[in-house]
Amino acid sequence: MGFIQSTDVCQTKDLDLDDVNNMMKVLEKLRVMEAEIHMKIAPIQDTYHMLAKYNVHVKSEELENVEQLQTKWDRLKEQSAKSMGMNAAWLQGCC
């Protein structure tokens, strides 16, 4: 969650060049992490589906977290894409 919280600067409207630089670093990390995250989410979800298939008891909170993994990752990517558009508009306006 720390990584997600570090992206909050994306949502501010008053950005300076340091903020834009930080945002670009976050976006670069997201691009690098995307394939790796996708490769991790699918096996986790498959494992929990298998546990459910064989009626293995798993805490409901844990199941909810697993069900939300892909949604949260997609939301983070969407937020980063929106902020990238906002940063591009900001850069065009200042130069």
Describe the structure.
With about 100 residues, the chain is an all-alpha fold. It has one domain. About 80% of the residues lie in helices and about 0% in strands. Helix 2 packs antiparallel against helix 3. The model has no long low-confidence stretch (mean pLDDT about 80).
Please supply descriptive tags for the structure shown above.
single chain; 95 residues; mainly alpha; 3 helices
In short:
The protein has helices at 2-5, 17-53, 60-94.
Mean pLDDT: 79
Helix/strand-derived category reads mainly alpha
Per DSSP, what share of the residues sits in E-state strands of 2 or more residues? Answer: under 5%
Overall 3D shape: elongated
| Spans where pLDDT lies below 50 across 5 or more residues | none
Q: Biggest β-sheet: count, sense, barrel?
A: none
Helical amount among residues, as a percent range? over 70%
What letter string, H or E per element, gives the SSE order? HHH
Topology, number of strands: 0
* Helix count, DSSP H or I runs of 4 or more residues: 3
Task: Give the N-to-C terminal Cα separation.
Answer: 34 Å
What is the number of independent domains? 1
Secondary-structure topology with pairs:
Layout: H1 2-5, H2 17-53, H3 60-94
Helix pairs in contact: 2-3
